[in-house]
């Protein structure tokens, strides 16, 4: 057998043939953009205009003196601080409630999961209608218990809250599925043993179940933080960053700079790329910090 | 078994059969009953109502007349159902085009993901070849990078390929997903290797083994990947938004719906009908393949 023929039947060739399409595609649309994005962030560059000029750290320095970037950062942080704890605590309670065999339980689970498969645009349309200032069902229901009327997405002080409400509705099912799976992994014997020893339900939840949910909680904290920091679709479609810029979050600002103004001929893609890279760095550091902290407090089953 | 023992020991009263059927991780301790039903219904029923309210209200609105939608207090039941709203919504928009485009894009991406992810995952799980570990690691690392970081350069690549404003812009970058490769690799590794070894000895090629042995054993995992990929593609908004700029013939459902909303902000009966129609395929798929969705979402969480 010649060396060539041996190579033809070797595992190396077989392996590479099998992964080749994936490697080419992920390389071109996954790896190249990561490097290119970094390069762009050091350039003055446009989407349409062929202009490419090296500007060093100018784009990064510019972020610090840009009031709109600061506003976007503040909005993103306040959204994340509201969204992450609310969605996770609510999901924990809902998963606990759904983790029992009672009549209609399949229907209840279905009701909680359905928003997960609903697109952000469809969700946005539903909430724009539900929370409509003039004709919305929500204002009518609230009026019956004597509060309101609210402007919701149209009120500068309420828009962020309405956004949180809408996204919690959309994400609750996802978090609940993760918690439900984790809850079903808690050994029943432990809880029974605690019950025999006279532990109340409350204390056996906090002393046994909650610690065993540690890995799931960590996962959800990390995952929700990442997606909260990258909020875009809902803002773009429902509030357009308004009113008065109160919901203009970082990714929305990046989009505006690069695409809305970029397609108009302005060379802001480099600056936008710099903001995106800073956000990426923040996410990376936060994620590592959360994992580091999690490792220290979470009890992992052997 | 042990659940029954515990319950009888601590509960001398008559046994509620439901108390014995507690799921893993739950102990149904008998307690005095004030209600003829489980007290958790008092939380779960309102919760289900709140979760379903936006959807139900959208359905009701889609069956009302324009005048009824503009009435305050809201009219909770239209009386005569206006099914004509659906036809009118289709007539007043390019709904057919959007639906067709979305279907083409979604089906192409799901099929190509099943093929390419299976091939790669099989190699990563079973074949020893030069660079396997490094390449697997590098592929997984791309999962860490958020979309907005690569959005601008990916746009520029797609632009250089001449795909802007074509369905190809939506399809080509998504023909394979790293998440799919990762999920299938993990699954293939759990399969018993003996069958494959026997087939190797009988002279079967790698491809034959993948198609005849591995794929038939992996149908649940492949179905999970298919439904998750279907959901992602069908519902995706950001990528179509930045790549389909002016060509309305290449609009997807989400893109079309968003522009339709902009143009018909005041005709909520039509908007509601269009919205319901856009959700229908994914809702039907979800109801039919619920467990694959749930499993897929749970694994999607695990990749993080």
Notes on the structure:
The complex is a heterodimer of chains A (302) and B (304). Chain A is 72% helix and 2% strand. Chain A contains 14 helices and two strands. Chain A has a two-stranded antiparallel ribbon with strand order 1-2. Chain A is globular and about 70 Å long. Chain B is mostly helical and 304 residues long. Chain B has two domains: 32 residues, no CATH class; 208 residues, MetI-like (MetI-like fold), CATH 1.10.3720. Chain B is 69% helix and 0% strand. In chain B, helix 3 packs across helix 16 and helix 6 packs antiparallel against helix 15. The longest helix of chain B has 32 residues. The two termini of chain B are 36 Å apart. The N terminus of chain B is likely disordered. Chains A and B meet through helix 2, helix 4, helix 5, helix 6 and helix 8 of A and helix 1, helix 3, helix 6, helix 7 and helix 8 of B.
What is the CATH H-level superfamily of the largest domain in chain B?
MetI-like
Helix count of chain A equals 14
Number of helices of chain B: 17
- Please give the CATH architecture of the largest domain in chain B: Orthogonal Bundle
- Tell me the strand percentage band of chain B: under 5%
Main sheet overview of chain A: 2 strands, antiparallel
Structure summary, number of beta strands of chain B: 0
What does the largest sheet of chain B look like? none
Any idea what the shape of chain A is?
Answer: globular
- Helicity of chain A, as a percent range: over 70%
- Give the name of the CATH architecture of the largest domain in chain A: Orthogonal Bundle
Number of domains of chain B: 2
Q: For the record, give the distance between the C-alpha atoms at the N and C termini of chain B, rounded to a whole number.
A: 36 Å
* Name of the CATH first level of the largest domain in chain B: Mainly Alpha
**Order of secondary-structure elements of chain A:** HHEEHHHHHHHHHHHH
Kindly provide the name of the CATH class of the largest domain in chain A.
Answer: Mainly Alpha
Shape of chain B: globular
**Overall average residue pLDDT of chain A:** 90
Most extensive chain-chain interface = A-B, 107 and 107 residues
Number of strands of chain A: 2
